[in-house]
Amino acid sequence: MANISFKTISLSNSTTTSAARLGELAFSTIPKIIETPAAMLYVRTGVVPDVTYDFIPDNVTRLLEIPLGSLVESMNNLENTESYANFARLSNPIYCPFHDTLVPLRAGGNGNLFSSVWTKSGRKELNIDRFKKLIQLVKPTMYETMFDGDTPFDQTTDKRFTKDRERSRKFLENSLEEQKNSTNIIIPLVGGYDKRHRELYLNEILRLIPKYEKNIFGVSFEGIHSYGPLTENLNIDTLKPLIEETRKKLNDYKNLLFTMPLLWRPDNVIRAVDLGFDLFSGAYVPYISDRFIILSFRYNDKMSSNITGPDYNINSKEYMNGKQSLLSNCECYCCKNYTQAYVYHLIQTKELLGRTLITIHNLYHYHAFFQAIRESIKANTWNEYRTMILEQYPIQEQK
């Protein structure tokens, strides 16, 4: 595995009252430092949905988010290669979450000796040995360990929470003790919405960190949703007390990376940055692009738009004869070369190019948004910036 480091950057002139912070990810395999907060580039089985690597905008963060669930069925092929990166000819660092943000989980897929991931062909069980074998084959730059996390809101008993903690701790300890794969681990913090069980699990983690501090790279907030489309509308404010309490207890470990798997709508991104999150899933872009949604919110105060609203559906007859670009003054390849009418036509004729152009625009727009977030924190204008973004989202959406 590649050597990797993460450090937070102290801002002496900061007056923000939030936990928003800047960080730097450095990798031994690439010369460029990745600044955080940042969104990853969502990849399934080595391919960015609908776009070739040649057409990915230059401003996109080249940290690949490849869910382990999308690789389970490739294990036999991987055994004859040095690593998954070689197999798929990938040169960028890879982050492997245990579950796929886009794929909803079903209850009852976990046991004392295994946990399940969900793929297009159904449920796939991973016991500890098979999970370790998969990590050896993939060789991700950093990865999330196995966990239970089957704790739906208002549907979980105290007994189920206890099993969740015990199984997740057992899976984690086994990964930490594995000499070959014990570096750059992201710890899943489980316990659902139950404050007591989350505290109990966090206390167990705090006892492990001193022994394995060199192995633990970050933490991920898990067990609070079942992934899939519903996470787009998750109310981050309901998680604020749990997240703030966790961060308070981890305050001595300032260079731990914080992440959570969600479909990160821009207004929720703002709330999460406020809570100190560093790394965000990039699955929101393929999710909305697949529904022909065009991002159009103002991510800086210099933008002028031909669209009213934070996004719109290009698959609407009102754009049938649109002679403008998807978004005025946008510098992405699609907006500089094609009109709304042309993209609408491609969708109606079911041409793959339509979704490709939509994805190119949304990738450019979404990652430019994160660049603007970092710039506002550096310039000590975060409070004004967060207000500008939140004002563009209707109250009913924010709730």
List keywords for this structure.
alpha/beta, 2 domains, nine-stranded parallel β-sheet, three-stranded antiparallel β-sheet, 13 helices, 16% strand, globular
Quick one: how many beta strands?
A: 16
* Distance linking N and C termini: 41 Å
What is the count of structural domains? 2
Query: For the report, how would you describe the main beta sheet?
Result: 9 strands, parallel
- Rounded Rg: 21 Å
Shape: globular
Instruction: Report the β-strand fraction as a percent range.
Output: 15-25%
Q: Which range best describes the helical content: under 10%, 10-25%, 25-40%, 40-55%, 55-70% or over 70%?
A: 25-40%
Strands of the widest sheet, in order across it, are: 4-14-13-12-11-10-7-6-5
**Named CATH architecture of the largest domain:** Alpha-Beta Barrel
Average pLDDT over all residues: 91
CATH topology of the largest domain: TIM Barrel
CATH class of the largest domain: Alpha Beta
Structural class: alpha/beta
Structure notes:
The chain has 399 residues and is an alpha/beta fold. Helix content is 34%, strand content 16%. It has two domains: 8-13 and 21-289, Alpha-Beta Barrel (TIM Barrel); 294-391, no CATH class. The protein contains 13 helices and 16 strands. The strands form four sheets. A nine-stranded parallel sheet has the order 4-14-13-12-11-10-7-6-5. α6 (240-249) links the parallel β12 and β13 (257-260). α10 crosses α11 (352-378). The protein is globular, with a radius of gyration of 21 Å. 45% of the residues are buried. The model has no long low-confidence stretch (mean pLDDT 91).
